[in-house]
Amino acid sequence: MKVAFITGITGQDGYYLTKLLLEKDYIVHGTIRRASLINTERIDPLISKYGNDRLYLHYSDLLDSSSLTNLLNKILPDEVYNLAAQSHVSVSFKNPIYTTQVGTLGSISLLEALRNTNKSIKFYQASSSEMYGGASKTKLNEKSPFDPKSPYAASKVFAHDVTKLYRESYDMFTVNGILFNHESPMRGETFVTRKITRAVGRIKLGIQEKVLLGNLDAFRDWGFAGDYVEGMWMMLQHHTPDDWVLATGESISVKEFAKAAFEAVNLNWKDYVEVSEKYFRPNEVEYLLGDYSKAEKEIGWKPKTSITELVNMMVESDLKLAKQEKVLIENNLLKPTWDNPKS
Ligand code: NAP
Ligand code: G4F
Fold it and tell me: How many CB atoms lie within 10 A of CB 34?
C-alpha cells in the first residue's frame, strides 16, 4: 500500500485528492491547523468512511518546520503533495507577509524536511497560473515567462523555482503542477465562481437579492478540480520529474461565467449583479489561457469536464444548499440577505 502525505488537506483540492488516493487504496496522512472552530467540513465524509482505517490527520502548519520534519520522519510517505497556501489573491494584498511566509518559507521547509528524511520521496508543488501575470492573450505553457502581479503569485514563483532547484541540485523527484483555475462545489465561497453560484442558488429561492462583484472583464481558464487532482497524481507516477501545465485551453470572462450561471436557473444576470469597488484589486491578472499539450503528450492527462458541465454542477449543488438555508429562514434561524455578508 502506498502512503501519501498532504498539506492543505482541508481545502478544495485536498478533498478531491484525498478522495482519489483513498479510492486508489492509498494510506493518506494530512495536516490540519488548530482553529477555534473545527474546519474539516469538506473532508468529514471521508473521515466517516476511512477515518479509522486509512485516513490520518495531524496538527501542523507550514510555518512550523519542526512539525513537518517530525511527521515526515514518522510517516515515511511515498508521495508528498504540498497544497497548503494562503491561496486567495486579493487577501494576499491585505496579508502580504503571512502569505509570503507560507508560500516561500513553508515550501522550502517542507523540501528541506524531505531532503533530510529520504530523498527518494516524491514531491508535488501546487504551482499556479497566477505566476504568469496575465498581461498577454497568448496560450501559456511551461516555457512562458513569469510576471507575478500579487504577493501570492510572487511567493508561488519562489516555491516553483525552489522545487526545480531541489530536483536539479539533489536529484530529488520534485514536480511543479502549474494549474490554471479549477473550481467545484467544494470551492471556497469567496472565489468568484463559487460566489456567483452561491448567489444564484439563493437568489433563485428568494433569500438573497443581489451579488456584488469586482472586475467583470477578467478572463480565466476554468476547469473542474476533480479532473486536476488526477493530473497531480499522474505527475508523480511519471518516470521522470518535470513541470506540467494543467488547463482546459478555453478562457471566458467573469461576466460570461455569471451569465451562464444565472441562465442555468432561467434568470438574467444583469438583474442581479452589481459592481463594487470593494472587490477590485491593486493589480489585476487580466487574461489567463493555458496550453496543456505537454501534460497530454507526456502523462496522458486532459480535462474531462466542460465549462457548461462545471457551471451546471456548481449551480445544482448551490441550489440544494439554498433550499436547506430557506428552511432555516422559515424557522427564523437565519435571515435573508441583500448581498452575501460572508463574501
Ligand atoms: P484552498 O481551498 O484555499 O485550501 C488551502 C489549504 O491550505 C487549506 O487546507 C488551508 O487550511 C491550508 N493552509 C493555509 N495556510 C496554511 C498554513 N500556514 N499551514 C498549513 N496549511 C495551510 O486552496 P485550493 O483551491 O485547494 O488550492 C490548493 C493549492 O493549489 C493551493 O496551494 C493553491 O494556491 C494552489 N492553486 C490553486 C488553484 C485553484 O484554482 N484552486 C490553481 C492553482 C494553484 P485551512 O483549512 O486550515 O485554512
Ligand atoms: O476567483 P478569483 O479570486 O481567483 P484568482 O484570483 O484567479 O485566483 C485563483 O486561481 C489561481 C490560479 O490562477 C490560484 F492560484 C489562486 O490560488 C486562486 O485559486 O478571481 C478570479 C477573477 C479575478 O480577476 C478577480 O478580480 O475574478 C475577478 N473577480 C471579480 N469579482 C472577483 C470578484 N474575484 C473574487 N474573488 N471576488 C469577486 O467579487
Answer: 9
Q: How confident is the model at residue 328, as a pLDDT?
A: 93
Q: Within 10 A of 41 (CB to CB), how many other CB atoms are there?
A: 11
| Ligand 1 atom 13 nearest Cα | 84
The DSSP secondary structure of 244-268, one letter per residue, reads EEE--S--EEHHHHHHHHHHTTT--
Can you tell me the distance from the alpha carbon of 128 to that of 88, in angstroms, rounded to the nearest whole number? 12
- 8 CA to centre of ligand 2 in angstroms: 19
Cβ of 188 closer than 6 Å to ligand 1, yes or no, is yes
Average pLDDT value for the chain: 97
CB of residue 281 inside a 6 A radius of ligand 2: yes
Q: In 125-224, which ranges are continuous DSSP H helix?
A: 151-170, 192-204
Other CB atoms within a 10 A radius of the CB of residue 313 amount to 17
- Decide if pLDDT at 334 tops 90: no
- pLDDT tens string 115-165: 999 999 999 999 999 999 999 999 999 999 999 999 999 999 999 999 999
Q: Which of 40, 172, 31 is nearest to 111 (CA)?
A: 172
Q: Which residues are catalytic?
A: 128, 130, 152
The grid cell for 135 is 498581461
Rounded to the nearest 5°, which phi and psi values hold at 174?
-115, 130
66 Cα: distance to centroid of ligand 1 (angstroms): 20
pTM (whole model) above 0.85:
yes
